[in-house]
Amino acid sequence: KRERANIKAAVTAVGRLDEGAAGHVAVVSSKQGRRAIVDRALLRTATLKAKERERAVAMLRAIPDDWPRAKERRHRLRGILVAIAQSDFAKKRIDAFEGRCKEAEALGPSKVAWCTAARKRLAEQADKARFKDALAFLAKGEAALFVEAASRVERKPRVAALWAKALRYAKSVVKTAPETAFAIMAAYPPNLKDAAKARKLAEAFRPIVKLKPPVLTQLADSSKA
Question: Over the stretch 130-170, which tens digit does the pLDDT of each residue have?
């Protein structure tokens, strides 16, 4: 009778997504009772409202891994965590989104495709922002800050476009700001197609400018970062 009462209480708590479901689940010992609880848990979480997801996660985690239908429960939990991550992403709660994605990926044999795509999207947005920052410094003629910002841009096509603009800018300020032109060309990445042209320009500017060695070293280090 006690076991039947425990099963009934646990099934009811699970159905309600009760915060105290873990305590009720823990006292059920029969295989039949555990099966009934798991069946109810999976049925209850087949469809959820957004406000119920967190409670559903807590309830599913309260069921031990050695209980029946463990694979289905992990799959269901993974799906709910991804749904929460999607909501966090849409609301720009990036730390929460990343945390939920990691939890979901820890439950399965592979990465979550949606999480991977979302991370790529974030990385692309961040790279675009770094590109705009570098262009802003270039427009202001702030050579050292431009070189530092440009070193953080990652996408190869974006890097090439950025330094192509830098080359044109350097040519345009040769007479008005030779120090700036020299600093930019001296830091030009050697792996880009116009590197030889940039190096030639830098050498041409060298006699006109009077930069101390520490400044040149700092600029060179920034371009390698």
Answer: 999 999 999 999 999 999 999 999 999 999 999 999 999 98
- 223 CB neighbour count, 10 Å cutoff: 18
Q: Which amino acid is at 20?
A: G
The Cα-based distances of 121 to 110, 111, 115, 131 in angstroms read 20, 16, 10, 15
pTM of the model: 0.74
Helices 94-107 and 113-139, packing angle to 10 deg: 150
Which residue type sits at 11? Answer: V
At 218, the amino acid letter reads Q
**Separation of alpha carbons 151 and 156, rounded Å:** 11
